[in-house]
Amino acid sequence: QVQLVESGGGLVQAGGSLRLSCAASGRTFSNLRMGWFRQAPGKEREFVAARSWSGTTSYGDSVKGRFTISRDYAKNAVYLQMNSLKPEDTAVYYCAADCNGMPPVCNYWGQGTQVTVSS
């Protein structure tokens, strides 16, 4: 059974940083494109970042230059380093796997982790 478990969310002040982690299990993910999405209250789910097995990355316009997606293939994990956080980054952040296209459409999803940025 495929599982994606996010961690690392929390409360941070504007301008601060957080690092989200996603632990994947249940199958091999090394050859899959993985990504992060977010959903703020009352808004649609938004693409944040994705990284392919070859290392190609893509980012949503609102996070370019501030967020970085990385992977640890040995640990079957994907990370999202978030710097220069803004109140508008407040959302539930979701890890996803087996993503295709742009914006990515993904087949596996985690339960999400809350990120709150205070002004």
Structure report:
There is one protein chain. The protein is mainly β. The protein has no helices and 11 strands. Strands 2, 4, 5, 6, 9, 10 and 11 form a 7-stranded mixed beta sheet that branches. Strand 4 and strand 5 form a beta hairpin. The model has no long low-confidence stretch (mean pLDDT 96).
For the terminal residues, how far apart are their CA atoms? Answer: 40 Å
Helix coverage percent of residues? under 10%
Q: Quick one: how many beta strands?
A: 11
SSE arrangement, N to C:
EEEEEEEEEEE
Number of helices: 0
Main sheet properties: 7 strands, mixed
What is the assembly state of the chains in this entry? single chain
In short:
Helix content is 0%, strand content 55%.
